[in-house]
Amino acid sequence: MANTNAEGHWGATSKLMWTALVIWAFFSFVIHFFVNSLNTIVILGFPLGFWFAAQGSLIVFVVLLFWFARKQDSIDREFGFAEED
Questions:
Q1: Can you spell out the DSSP letters for 19-68?
Q2: Chain centroid to CA 8
Q3: Mean pLDDT of all residues belonging to the chain
Q4: Rounded Cα–Cα distance for residues 12 and 24 (Å)
Q5: What pLDDT is recorded for position 2?
Q6: N or C: which end of the chain has fewer CB within 10 A?
Q7: Virtual CA dihedral for 17, 21, 23, 25, nearest 10 degrees?
């Protein structure tokens, strides 16, 4: 039973890890490939590509960290691996 519980925990953790990695890679690399195209759109005097490169990616990374921690905590609680409060 404990082995099945550990396998389920690792499966959920692995899925979360890959999801977070894909989101991180998208906002680290893919968005920046299109910066020149996005620079044709100007919002509040700043090119959209500049905003994504300078601010947008950083905001996404911070939100991603908090989201990942919350989801990992719920996975830990679901499978009985949570730390005691």
A1: HHHHHHHIIIIIHHHTHHHHTTSEETTEEHHHHIIIIIHHHHHHHHHHHH
A2: 21
A3: 88
A4: 18
A5: 63
A6: C
A7: 180
CA dist., res. 45 & res. 53, Å (int)? 15
Express each pLDDT in 17-40 by its tens digit: 999 999 999 988 888 888 888 888
User: Nearest Cα to 34, choosing from 46, 18, 52?
Assistant: 52
For residue 82, give every residue at least 6 positions away whose Cβ sits within 8 Å of its Cβ, in sequence order, or none. Answer: 73, 76
